[in-house]
Amino acid sequence: MQQTSVEDIKKVLSQNLDLQGIDLSSVEANAPLFESLGLDSLDAIELVIILRKNYDIVIENMETGKEVFSSLESLRRYVSENRKK
Amino acid sequence: MVQGWTGKSRSKNFFHNLMILIIKFGALKFAYFIGRFVAFFYCLLPSVRKNASYYLEKKFPNCNHIKKFLHLYKLNLTFGKILIDRAIFGIKSKVNIISSRADINLCKSLYQKNNGLIILSAHCGCWQSAMSAFNLIDDEKEKYVVYHQNKEDIDKHVHQLQKKESPVKFIEPNAFDGGIIEIMAALQRGSLVCMMGDRVFGASNNFVEVNFLGAKIALPFSIYRIAATLNKPIAIIFFPYKKTGAVDTMIADYFFVKDGGKAAQNYVEYADRFSKALENFVKVYPYQFYNYFNLWRK
Fold it and tell me: How far apart are CA B269 and CA A60, in angstroms?
């Protein structure tokens, strides 16, 4: 299992999402992801793409998606446990 | 851009239940007969006249008041027949979904070759009946319909009327992510996803502007981004009402989307294809377009 840090996740998100001035360094790891970053449905597409392209991870159902994208920490944990690259 | 529609039923529970009762007792001709008066009654309501006028004025410009009223009556009457048909289909399973062999083969081929398919439709013709009895792909794979049911909508789905389990699964587009994660997960599993291409959800920047009946409208573009990313084809399919008890299928267009990244402008050509297909539909079926709100508002 290749460990991924919250900082790694923040870096990938800042490179791929239009965060409209939100300072990622001030966002806490357990804060709700969509609310704290002001994400919408278009960003949801990008999140799924980020997981596929950067970590070769496919979200296969809604329940997993809800859990994975609930916070930066849950995203980090899922990436650490499931990344293939 | 904030959505300009609600999806709320106009009819009252009492009239709705009365119609259901008439159909249950088998008085189908009586139900269609009553439908004529109901359609006329709705023509008298200022809110219905206003909400239908946005489309009718674009479709039939420069009409006098009498012609306007006739167009409105025909629009309401056809919609009424479609709703009665849907109820009959739910209660008595008497409506036939007609699909040509060519349409079935095309859809199956698109679906099987690409392990998944997006069906893009619109609020026109018999979309509700058709989605409940989709027979273009006879496959064990799961079928999903992206559908928001307003809490105040008293119309029931066909399976609800039949008190059966739904043959399709519903994805709520008003979820925190617009239903996107579930749509993408379903497509990645090789399922079929059916959704509407003519309405923007929520207060979102998920739209591009295209021409429709001579002026600009906003259409959502995220589904084109999803199709490009997952390399799944899109088939634009409408379900015109042909006659009492008969729903046709019309594959208006189908295509793959070239990945244009995040930029909305890169998906305008696909939204434009959808808009053109819809324009062609209303040329043939001018009284089967049921967006009772101002699609053209800025």
Answer: 30
Whether residue A34 lies within 8 A of chain B, CB to CB, comes out as: yes
A40, A44, A46 member nearest B262 (Cβ): A46
- For residue B36, which phi and psi values (nearest 5 degrees)? -65, -40
Q: Which domains does chain A have, with CATH numbers?
A: 6-82 (1.10.1200.10)
pLDDT, mean of each 10-residue run, chain A (85 residues):
87 87 87 90 91 91 89 95 89
- Which pTM value belongs to this model? 0.88
Nearest CA in chain B to A49: B229
Find which of B3, B115, B180 to mutate to test the A interface (most A CBs within 10 Å of its CB). Answer: B180
A19 burial (CB, 10 Å; 0-12 / 13-18 / 19+) is middle
CB B129 within 8 A of CB B85: yes
- Chain A's closest residue to B203, CA to CA, is A40
